[in-house]
Amino acid sequence: MNTATLLSLAAYFALMIGIGLYAWRKSTSDSAGYLLAGRNLPPSVAALSAGASDMSGWLLLGLPGALYLSGLSAVWIGIGLFVGAAANWILVAPRLRAQTEAYGNALTIPQFLANRFPDQGVNLRVISAIVIVVFFTVYTAAGLVGGGKLFETAFAGVLPETGLSDYAMGIVITAGIVLAYTMVGGFLAVSLTDFVQGIIMVLALIIMPLVVMFGGDGGGSSFDAVPVDGFLSLTEGVTLLGFISAVTWGLGYFGQPHIIVRFMAIDTVEKVARARTIGLTWMAVALIGAVGVGICGRAYTLANGIVVDDAETIFIVLAELLFHPAITGFLYAALLAAIMSTISSQLLVSSSSLTEDFYRLFLRKEAGETEAVNVGRVCVALVAVAAMVLASNPESQVLGLVANAWAGFGAAFGPLIILALMWRGMTGAGAVAGLVTGALVTGAWIALGLNADMGGGEGLYEIVPGFAAAWIAIVLVSKMTEGAEPFTGAPE
Questions:
Q1: pTM for this one?
Q2: Residues 321-332: pLDDT tens digits?
Q3: For residues 325 and 237, what is the distance between their CA atoms, to the nearest angstrom?
Q4: Burial of residue 417, with CB atoms counted within 10 A of its CB: 0-12 exposed, 13-18 middle, 19 or more buried
Q5: What distance in Å separates the CA atoms of residue 81 and residue 403, rounded to the nearest whole number?
């Protein structure tokens, strides 16, 4: 490991912690500041924060790895995600920003649901908080797996002897840095670091494919070694179930608390449109870059006889082989940025649910603002420790873990959020039914082995039955319990 690489990473870590300290001084005096930055995020910060917290390590590990193995047919996941993100910005963002403020200035998704349906308020807060903590612990573990893989692949033999493997040390270091700025600086720290991390990620995803195509050591001629038969086809090997499973990833956007909470924090409803333009532009460039890494990585390694044991490490392999050590350090920072931006967001949302929807609801209703912020910091650490335990298996696949957690949130919260914002006839009982049904159907689909293996199995992605069942449950139960409180949402 070159000194320049280590210095690049050290500078990145120092920047993240510095942002955390800045945010600590600016916005952590009360729960509104710690959990939502006082609803004062500029559109650019909100947009890149939503994108960076969304994409996670799968953008630089899982998606390029799938393309490396399967070819261009794996791009349907990215296409489905982009369409889903666009619909989320159009349908959910402006309504959620307005209605969470109108309904008692709700700071969390469970609080909003409880205020929207007061007859089922406690049930909604408790059940949704349980779903958030459980699925986010799994999701956070996926990010830590990415951190472990980075250190295991790139830092083998460099880390000090501690009795832990390089993989385990990677998990500890990744979690430690994230905890440092998240616990201290809260939502503002998470959002500002996401903004910086989003810029680093997209630059890395632009640079790497361009260097493979136009740089030395084979450059564009590497594509002569690609097995063209089907590899560059959008349809080769794609079954109907496989296509549905890929494009329906986009359904998950409507129910991802760590993404939609950014909508709640934009400083005004009128600025949502500007944030949408910035966010979708960033996402399009990032997804195209990730596709380029996977396809160009396959071409380069075949042309040069390089064996890649784990396809999800192709970004790391190319970073080591093609770049000056200082740039390699920047690229490693981009991968850590993808991982950390998502982990920090997930930890904070989990912490907010534990604090606002358990601690202040049942244990200490009279808890002051300072006490609530400190409890939130403790909860951040507790969720992180649980995720570290789940991530301890080095054989875990990033994309598989993300797929399960993404589906769980998408099915449990997606129909619930859409209909709560847009349908006047929805009732509290319908909301509870949809939340429970979406989570249970998704979990059962996974447990029964009916879900799609993201490596190319023939099952159906669990978000499809979960999302459909939750939507049907909300509509049917709401119809059966008509007469509950009327819809009085804020103007769109």
A1: 0.84
A2: 888 888 888 888
A3: 39
A4: buried
A5: 12
